[in-house]
Amino acid sequence: MTLLTPQEAILCLQAGNQRFVSGQLDARDSGAEIRNTASGAHPFAVVLGCIDSRVPPELIFDQGLGALYCVRVAGNLLDDAVLASLEFACCVSGAVLLVVLGHTDCGAVKGACAGLRQGTLTKAFEQLAPAFAAAKSNGQNEPANSTNSAFVNLVAQEHVALTLAEIKQRCPALAAAEEQGTVDLVGAFYDVQTGEVMFSDIASG
Ligand SMILES: [Zn+2]
């Protein structure tokens, strides 16, 4: 179990992202990190992110071995296996922060916005329909198509918020942990242009 509070865990990720953006990464000794985690690790956070090669959580948050659980699925989509990984990380292993990490220029989101149908991807694109609908109603004057990057990014942001709500709805243990204040569930959004992560939905207190 980590010694950090949920609030400290967020600060830790924010500081790591600042180091990443500024190019001032922590010096790492991989040999020492391997030795220090050989008998076990106590990750303080779990990140549900996309498979996009530009958004590896350990790099963008400048974290070493044993610091993060990372679940990566195209479009950071939920299914039962993903939910089980999130519940394990927080409710069994002791991570105190759950981050749903979306990003700009997401290929899965663009596919959904284009209405693509392709093999096993079709079902994944369909899972993004609620976020597409939410962005369409909140996006006001934005043309709702896959070539409008502002709209695509809006869908991705709506998808983060909807995913957080869905996690709490489908996983009573995580909802209870958040209620008790032992785990924070937060949304975050990575900008592939700048390398910066913006956090949202940060619980007060
Ligand atoms: Zn993506």
Would you write up a description of this structure?
- The chain has 205 residues and is an alpha/beta fold.
- It has one domain: Carbonic anhydrase (Beta-carbonic Anhydrase, Chain A).
- The chain has nine helices and five strands, in the order ααβαβαβαααααββ.
- Helix 3 links the parallel strand 1 and strand 2.
- Helix 8 crosses helix 9.
- The chain is globular and about 50 Å long.
- The model has no long low-confidence stretch (mean pLDDT 94).
Fold blueprint:
Blueprint: H1 6-22, H2 30-37, E1 45-49, H3 57-60, E2 68-72, H4 80-92, E3 97-103, H5 107-113, H6 121-127, H7 129-138, H8 149-170, H9 172-180, E4 184-190, E5 197-200
Parallel strand pairs: 1-2, 1-3, 3-4
Antiparallel strand pairs: 4-5
The structure holds zinc ion (ZN).
Short description:
The protein is α/β, with parallel strands linked by helices.
Number of E-type strands: 5
How are the strands of the biggest sheet laid out side by side?
2-1-3-4-5
CATH architecture, please? 3-Layer(aba) Sandwich
The ligands found in this model are:
zinc ion
The CATH superfamily label reads Carbonic anhydrase
Give the helices and strands as they follow along the chain.
HHEHEHEHHHHHEE
Approximately how much beta-strand content do the residues carry? 5-15%
According to CATH, what is the topology? Answer: Beta-carbonic Anhydrase, Chain A
- Overall tally of structural domains: 1
Query: Which class in CATH terms?
Result: Alpha Beta
- Taking Cα atoms only, what radius of gyration do you get, to the nearest Å? 17 Å
What class, by secondary structure content?
A: alpha/beta
Low-pLDDT segments, ≥5 res: none
Terminal CA distance? 21 Å
Mean pLDDT: 94
Number of helical segments with 4 or more residues: 9
Morphology: globular
**Main sheet attributes: strand count, strand direction, barrel closure:** 5 strands, mixed
User: Share of helix among residues?
Assistant: 40-55%
